[in-house]
Amino acid sequence: MIKLVECPRDAMQGRSEFIDTAIKAAYINQLSQVGFDTIDFGSFVSPKAVPQMRDTEEVLSLLDLFNAKSKLLAIVVNRRGAEDALHFEEIDYLGFPLSVSETFQQRNTNKSINEALDTVEEIQNLCEVKGKTLVTYLSMGFGNPYGDPFSSELVAQFVHHLDELGIKIISFADTVGSATPELISELYTVNSKEFPRIEFGLHLHTHPQLLKPKIDAAVASGCMRFDGAIKGYGGCPFAEDELVGNVATESLIAILEGHGFDLNLNKIEFVEAMKLANVVFH
């Protein structure tokens, strides 16, 4: 079954103007009625690093989760953030951005890759104690603009290490739009066979006109977990100046339904979410 992850956190985090807390909560409440598997709703990180996310805890307090159809995911980058997030039983998943690129790991979390791997192990242990699931994002998972080493074999080494830590969900993240259909096919085909215990996802930043061949390749290679953001808003503020956006959820839905998948979404609620997105990201 296809799992769709809606990412309002990723859509919002790089915006310079602060989005009102009540508006964020209203938007996430609307998204929770659509039928997405998971909503990446906020992050427990330094407010200096990501000012837009400084109200994540308050947003959480305003969410109406009684009839929500989605699980909640929060991004963390260190033990303290993980401990903060784990105080809330409403949060099902913690997400950690682990980079294949040493340069980007430093830019994104102010850690080396080795330090970040130690943090992943710490957070994984905390999640297991609390009955939560850690989602590890392999950012720069399809190459990087910094000249750092990259190969599909290097990605497989990261996956092997994470498998040894007991990580159950890994999302390959194309932070700067460098994925090709051929590389997507290679990464998913090789790793899904080698590590059958792991659920592999795809978090693309891409130009809209290049999206369909990439999703087609992922589907053909067995990927069943896809991240998107309504209207393609957002991107990573720590990557580079010329950002490519998130995958537009409406485009992702159309492509996946074109493959014959029943995504079990409430289309009426989705239309309302699209309308509300115009208010949030005006």
Automatic annotation (TrEMBL):
UniProt xrefs under SUPFAM superfamilies: Aldolase
Keywords: Lyase, Metal-binding
Molecular function GO labels: hydroxymethylglutaryl-CoA lyase activity; metal ion binding
InterPro entries hit by this protein: Aldolase_TIM, HMGL, PYR_CT
Residue ranges constituting the Pyruvate carboxyltransferase domain according to the UniProt record: 1-271
CDD domains: DRE_TIM_HMGL (cd07938)
GO biological process: ketone body biosynthetic process; L-leucine catabolic process
Nucleotide-binding is among the record's keywords: no
Family membership: Belongs to the HMG-CoA lyase family.
Protein name: Hydroxymethylglutaryl-CoA lyase
Phylogenetic placement of the source organism: Bacteria, Pseudomonadati, Bacteroidota, Cytophagia, Cytophagales
